[in-house]
Model the fold of this input.
Amino acid sequence: MSSVWRASADEAEQVAALLVEFRDHLGHSTPSQESFLDSVQKLIDRSDTEFWLAAPEGDPRPAAVCQLRFRHSVWTAAEDCWLEDLFVRDSVRGQGLGRALVLRALERAAERGCRRVELDTNEDNHAALGLYTSLGFSTVSKGDSRSLFLGASVDGGR
Done:
């Protein structure tokens, strides 16, 4: 069994450190550690953002993190929840921390009155896809004809 809790402002450094590990796991070198910490500190006390931490049973140190973002949808007349980040440290993978965080995210979304939880993941990340589909996520979350997620970089007009 794992322990899952909402991160407080006092835990911003721990949240940022886990997000830096996620960045490194993905093979990226940016954003910087300082940028992650600055962003976490800006977001952690906002009502539309929550960071959740998880630790293996008997260990008080977090080894996994989940970021939730909330926004109101005109299509559902309720909040949507975006599971923006989920990371579990390599050394504790397979111990149920990711599952515990996603389950808590689903519970938290329901507590806030959300109608849906959405996320994106790499289509080659079979472990993540297995986890998400086992918990009810679908690649067609907005209906049979709505399964493509798009994005565009905005670089300030450069």
